[in-house]
Fold each of these.
Amino acid sequence: MFFSEHFITTLILSTLIIGYLIDSLAEYLNIRHLNPELPHEFSDVYDTDKYAKSQAYLKVNTRFGFITSSFDLAILLTFWFGGGFGLLDTFVRGLGQNTIVTGLLFIGILLLLKLLISLPFSLYATFVIEEKFGFNRTSFGLFFKDLIKSILLSSILGGFFLSLILWFFESFGPLAWFLCWMASILFIMAIQYIVPTWIMPLFNKFTPLERGPLKEAILNYARSINFSLSHIFVMDGSKRSGKSNAFFTGFGKNKRIVLFDTLVKQQSVEELVAVIAHEMGHFKKKHIIRRLVVSILQMGIIFFLISLCISREGLFHAFFVDKISIYAGLIFFGMLFSPIDLFLSLILQISSRRDEYEADQFAAITTKGHHHLVTALKQLSAHNLSNLTPHPFYVFLNYSHPPILERIRALEKIGTSPKGLTP
Ligand SMILES: [Zn+2]
């Protein structure tokens, strides 16, 4: 029953439509939830104009997101029910290549089409919306240079990985899912190393943080919590956008912190240390390693499920494709899996929001006070025009971090509780 054509069609179609309706409802509620009155916690970083601007930014982005997702859904349904998958399959088979090359072409063309369709939307988002709100610093030249670099990179890395997967499923029968799983674990480990050392420098310049009070303070803090840190870099984020951020890359002894130049400019030494303390909290509280283990287990389960579904005739008929193939099966499985994926991502987000509170708490305790983290968070949200009052349902569906206001309130609670500051 599960693999009957009609059941699969109904399941995927209803997931797409219900998902679209739920998202649109959440966005509507989110806009309705905007409050013209500034939360009093933010009175020192926002004035009336800036607060109104942040709400206008949310409205513009929401409207644009609604148009994009409606368009995407319409295109997908037209392609699906217009027999697009079958036509493409006939075309790539007609080129007479072996199954792996045929598969790479099938998936490559689909991804390229998706990219071309979304291109006008990302141009609009960058050069109209971000520009209007004063964030955009990207030139057309840089935008297209970035685009070409990312296409080349994903063709090389993605193409290599996909060839392996196709080869395993073509040649190793019941062992294939296990081999795919092992290969993807190796691939993830390699990526952890390749991304910071080779890939990110293709897009940005990373300058070691120069000696001075900031570097001193960060190193002192790291020492105080026994955190081994090999490098601190400043990244020229201002090349593309005025928004600011900070992140960690690498593992073990090779961990490095990256601070956006925009962040270094905006925040005081104490605030920057508080932000870094939060990030280090994710390591110390084992969030990073736990997320890695969860995603590795998740991949194993996914490859196992793929092996169960990939050659079912019903799955292919649901997409109007006659001939069974591994490559098309992978794409169709991806669509069949989307309801489970949605459910899993909601659970992961709940756990991620909990981790954020824990990392905040870690930072407050180890930097001996929550004030600097609170002011850093407030400035960051004012600078990035974040939504201060998101609707709880929207947060539940979309937020990997708790809303800033809730984080600040939680931090203030630690600050005032008598045993709050003992680790
Ligand atoms: Zn965090």
Amino acid sequence: MTEMTNFQREISRLLPNIKLLFNEPMAKHTSFRIGGPAEVMAFPENADQLAEILKVSTVLDIKPAIIGAGTNILAPDAGLPGLTVCIKDNLSAVEMVDDTHIRASAGATMTKTAVFAANAGLSGLEFAHGIPGSVGGGVYMNAGAYGGEIKDVFTSAEVMTYDGELRTYTADEMAFSYRHSRLEEQPGIVLSAVFALTPKPADQIRGYMQELAAKRKASQPLDKPSAGSAFKRPVGGYAAALIDQAGLKGYRVGGAAISEKHAGFAVNLGDATAEDVKTLLRQVSQKVYEESGIRLEPEVRIW
Ligand SMILES: Cc1cc2nc3c(=O)[nH]c(=O)nc-3n(C[C@H](O)[C@H](O)[C@H](O)COP(=O)(O)OP(=O)(O)OC[C@H]3O[C@@H](n4cnc5c(N)ncnc54)[C@H](O)[C@@H]3O)c2cc1C
């Protein structure tokens, strides 16, 4: 009997109503619309269920993969063996903590969280409004846009370790830097985050969010599957400008291409494989290096 059969048997005994999917295409759970089947995908509805899943996984020596909204992941064509835990949709409450702080659960979208803040007349999360990921993914990545970053408003996060223990991390403890947090080196699962915001008239906040949405719509290929910016911003330049200068807009490998609209985006033209995207990113990075001497590193998490 395999460890995943044991997992399924044990978790079904402990949590008879938990949603489990088998051989579930990752392409259905990633914004790239790429990725083969996840052997077992679990959808915990709350922290207690997540803790049970993690405890059983630890006993069986299974290391689960965690996905939020899947908007920054390139999942392999061969799929993901073992267990994938999906945080989005469930665990999605957003609530006031006090007059200037809100708590967002990890599965809430950043857009929902930004709208909640705007409705409460609290400014600081406008930048997050058009980022299509979850709060958990945003904290993990220190997501940012238009001059704002999660770390600017972050106060603390409740994080579950892989053996099911709860920790609260402060901003210092999260060791945020550009598109990075401590969770990359010391894995843990974000359950919720508290953000410190500033009172401001709601119509001004909404006006700024609309302005940013219009900028996104005008500049980004939102009609094509992607994972947002394919590369991190390098020291000494902008990835999109360097790719454009290297003449790579529209450059194509199989079904994957550099967007004609925004050179910082790699897009799926319809039938791209993960191998197509990986080859595209590798070749683009190499050509940019030959032209500029600047090495581009992927921002998208390649699994
Ligand atoms: C059209 C488009 C535009 C985008 N624009 C931006 C932008 O302006 N700025 C920006 O920063 N990003 C942008 N992105 C990328 C993406 O939305 C962000 O990186 C986002 O923070 C990822 O969140 P997610 O929930 O989708 O994470 P996922 O893609 O599901 O996961 C990303 C990583 O986070 C981890 N993770 C997810 N949830 C948790 C959790 N609860 N606890 C611990 N780890 C977790 C995963 O294991 C994985 O390693 C864009 C993407 C798209 C498709």
